[in-house]
Amino acid sequence: MTNHKCPPASLLFIFGGSGDLNQRKLSPALYNLFIDSWMPEKFHIVGIGRTPYTDEKFRGHLLDGIQQFSRRKGDQNGKWQEFSKNISYLQMDVGNDADYQKIADIVKQKEQEFGEHPNVIFYMSVAPHLVPQIASKLGPLNICHDTKCTRIVVEKPFGHDLKSAHELNGLLTSMFDETQIYRIDHYLGKETVQNILALRFANALFEPIWNRNYIDHIQITAAETVGLENRGDYYERSGALRDMVQNHILQLLCMVAMEAPVSFDANEIRNKKVDVLNAIRKYGKEEVHKYAVRGQYSDGWLQGKKVPGYRNEDKINPASPTDTFAAVKFYIDNWRWQDVPFYVRTGKRLHEKSTIITVQFKQAPNFAFPPEAALTWRPNRLTISIQPEMDIRLRFQAKRPGQTVTLNPVDMIFNYKDTYGDDDPEAYETLLLDVMEGNATLFMRSDQVEAAWKVVMPIQEAWESRAPVDFPNYSPDSWGPEDAEALIARDGRNWITLPIAHQGVQAHL
Ligand code: BG6
Q1: In order of start, what are the domains of the chain with their CATH numbers?
Q2: Using a 6 Å CB cutoff, which residues line ligand 1?
Q3: Which residues take part in binding NADP(+) (predicted)?
Q4: Rounded mean pLDDT of 117-121?
């Protein structure tokens, strides 16, 4: 028995069903929803691909993925048997019009079995160039005109630049209503990311000081230790700015910088985010070098292993100009944020996997303590650790116990694991449930995607028009190129690099 309402009957078609994303993320997510009794009472999942599979073999392939990648491994008391009865495989050629009739037939058949018309969800877990082709062949099917029940889910990258994103939006909205289109940015499904809105808008404490009067600057770091993970084909055409900044990092920035929504209505929240994107200062091509730094990793060592430089990776041009690191200083030109810099950085093969947001407050205006009391005196800082650490820390000054007056910074900590245990749903669980429920709050609207492209396009174009002369310019296990340090040091500040698990207050003043 469940004490919550489950989504209505749903039929999910996963294009790219035999691919990596489905095996690593989507199927584990759907299985976890099933274990937690969040799946609809009636559902069916159809994996679509070119690889020939029997239903049985396909289920085995997904179970392998669950064993390797899910937060819960294996069968879980016979649950897998029960769940997997609802999975089948459809081999089809997505370029062949006639094959789409098979989809319409399955919908009819399931409708009869369920005794009701289910949600029909098309998940595009395919290479980006296939999305327009599949969408335009799905569009004419009768089922796609049902704006209430039929939905299409599109993975990033959403376009390669502003022009292609605009064209893709045009194509999708000519086939589907905007309310049927769910553009995924999986960062928005992370618990720690959703919690930013709770922190800001469910507490009276932070919002009054969340502005240019009290905040000195904000930093967002999304560092990864991984390299390309067999995605050379895609990454070589993308680079860090497109792969991480245009979407995940700008989404984080929007959550931190947006105005308070008046309701949790999907469009209300998305409107507030678009306002932020529109207010981000757009740099002229000739001034980009003052605000943005790119990098690419060299050969080197990481965690005791020798790793190839980017240009020596599989499927990569040996003289590739692709950025594997990007750092940008953004400004948001509005009343709340005028002149407050937002420093963001992201990169592959960096020292540690860590995504954190730091809100650095201004110094206390007057300091009455004796100078020797304040050798380690630091301004207040709020750190939101998104992953893999999941916590929120507020740094403030405390008097060290003893007969002398010595002040030093200490942290007030909210840690997810300590408070709630460590069985949080993964981002894809939340997002897939939202799609089945028809809740688009955590998905990107067309104007939002284009507004984000408008922010990064001048930087991308400036970089493309001038080949990098210093690549590779950072070694694995570092925090990126020297120029990224200079970008922030010029302003008399430094990147806040919190070590694993934040050991030791003194280590990261
Ligand atoms: C994806 C990028 O969107 O996000 C990858 O394409 C990146 O290059 C990944 O590794 C990072 O996601 P997460 O959830 O591990 O931070």
Answers
A1: 10-155 (3.40.50.720), 188-489 (3.30.360.10)
A2: 156, 224, 243, 355
A3: 50, 93-94, 156
A4: 96
